[in-house]
UniProtKB/TrEMBL annotation:
InterPro entries: Amidohydro-rel, Metal-dep_hydrolase_composite, Metal_Hydrolase, MTA/SAH_deaminase. NCBIfam families: PRK08203.1 (NF006055). It holds the Pfam family Amidohydro_1. This is 8-oxoguanine deaminase. Keywords: Hydrolase. The keyword Transport does not apply. One of its GO terms (molecular function) is 8-oxoguanine deaminase activity. Residues 70-445 form the Amidohydrolase-related domain.
Length: 475
């Protein structure tokens, strides 16, 4: 009888994977170990051993020959709006600052459909995976035409990315003094009920979770104080995390002072939005008092350098935050304000922008170019992001950690004459490369530069057709 046979059969042993003989593995562990000629042995999606190739096994169910490659922990993206992949480089929004940019794009985004969310999420994730990113958050805050967060979640599960799905929301439209058009805002009771449904349906708080759900009202200028408070209560009751936008530019700060009589950090704290279960996107204009409060409370920041430059928002005081002890991760931010989703490239921009920022300080620079080294940037992109997302199972490579890794080829044009001196530094200092292989939870999702889980050609064709449809819908 089939059922008897099934129940008495020995369990299938977990699959093993060997990354064999890499030129160098930058583990980003507590000692920041960089092993030359090293291997990683993975069993059932978890790292079992890592170290010199001569001391590790030489066989496994699947072996990746890593000669010529540099291995780093999978990068972590802490802020994104993946649906915006459909509206990159829209001419009318190319040269606007935040509020004008949003007002130009809101009417276009009002045409978003469930298929558009699914397809654009996969495009954004494909781009991230090929840039070395293995875990991403996505902040979806627009729900017209039957769109649900479940549509992004399905897309993530199909492509095989570790995902922190943030249930965004907007509830204060133009007529109530908010920024978004009234037609794009939702009722607050519905937002809270849907957030609860999503957490109860999908959130996995276990170690090595591939999917977590986050409560994420959009911004001070698009939701009420009540919704911020109630979202925090819900998130804490259900033991999940909270995410929003904060202190993005001078107008954002002016709105907070005028509307609430507080700085953005004071506003956040007054609503319960500080703590080690909270992270805020941008914080370009976080003041010294805010930095101190964030450090004292463990409140995290998603640093989005490309978007901050694109929208002329400013230069976030990242070195000050890091020195104060604020958890800082990287975010590519939405695809319409970057307009790339290359996380290794974002780390490079974080490194470069921090150096520019310090050169602009009135009293000269303390660190000079060492304000942000290549390894600092890699640290923020890996360990920093993991901390911001509240994870102790990703962000560095060690036995017991999730097998999330990015493998880059050092024998390329972009790395020529660089990787031979310092393959890890060259990753950040040379042109941002795409991965040769990307591994998520022990599964090879990019092999030899190609996604193994989706067929990219037809996906892009459909995405581009939908992008045209969205831009041309009646709005
Ligand atoms: Zn954003």
């Amino acid at each position: 009888m089939p059922s008897t046979l099934t129940s008495t059969a020995p369990p299938t042993p977990p699959k093993t994977l060997l990354i064999h003989d890499a030129d160098v593995i930058a583990a980003m562990d507590d000692q920041r170990t960089e092993w030359p000629r090293a291997s990683v042995f993975v069993r059932g999606g978890v790292i079992e051993a890592i170290g010199p190739a001569s001391e590790l096994p030489t066989t496994a169910d699947e072996v990746i020959d890593a000669r010529g490659l540099v291995v780093v922990p999978g990068l972590v993206n802490t802020h994104h709006h993946m649906y915006q992949s459909l509206t990159r480089a829209i001419p009318a929004a190319q040269n606007a600052e935040l509020f004008g940019w949003l007002k130009t794009l809101y009417p276009i985004w009002a045409g978003l459909t469930p298929e558009m969310v699914h397809v654009s999420t996969q495009v954004a994730m494909a781009e991230l995976l090929l840039s070395g990113c293995t875990t991403s958050s996505d902040h979806l805050y627009i729900y017209p035409n039957g769109v649900r967060l479940d549509h992004s979640i399905e897309a993530a599960q199909q492509i095989g990315m570790r995902f922190h799905a943030a249930r965004g929301s907007m509830s204060v439209g133009e007529s109530a003094g908010g920024l978004p058009p009234d037609a794009l805002v939702e009722r607050e009771d519905h937002i809270l009920a849907d957030t609860q449904r999503l957490i109860e349906t999908h959130h996995d708080e276990g170690r090595y979770a591939m999917l977590r759900v986050v409560a994420a009202p959009c911004s001070p200028f698009s939701v009420s104080r009540d919704l911020m408070r109630e979202s925090a209560n819900l998130a804490r009751a259900l033991r999940t995390r909270m995410h929003t936008h904060l202190a993005e530019n001078d107008h954002d700060v002016a709105y907070s002072r005028e509307k609430f009589g507080m700085t953005p950090a004071e506003y956040a704290e007054s609503l319960g939005w500080v703590g080690n279960d909270v992270w805020h996107a941008h914080c370009v204009k976080l003041d010294p008092a805010g930095i101190a409060r964030f450090a004292a409370t463990g409140t995290g920041v998603a640093h989005c350098p490309c978007s901050n430059m694109r929208l002329a928002s400013g230069i976030a005081p990242v070195r000050r935050m890091l020195d104060a002890g604020v958890p800082v991760g990287l975010g590519v931010d939405g695809s319409a304000s970057n307009d790339a989703a290359h996380l290794l490239g974002e780390a490079r921009q974080a490194m470069l922008l921090a150096r520019v920022g310090r050169s602009l300080e009135p009293f000269g620079c303390d660190h000079g170019p060492a304000e942000m080294t290549a390894r600092h940037a890699l640290d923020v992109a890996t360990r920093g992001g993991a901390r911001v997302l509240g994870r102790d199972d990703i962000g560095h490579l060690a036995p017991g950690m999730a097998a999330d890794m990015a493998l880059f080829d050092t024998r390329t044009l972009g790395m020529a004459g660089g990787a031979v001196h310092d393959p890890v530094g060259a990753l950040l200092l040379c042109a941002p490369a795409q991965t040769r292989h990307t591994i998520v939870n022990g599964r090879v999702v990019v092999r030899d530069g190609q996604l193994t889980t989706v067929d990219l050609g037809p996906l892009l064709e459909r995405h581009n057709a939908l992008a045209v449809q969205l831009a041309n819908h009646r709005h």
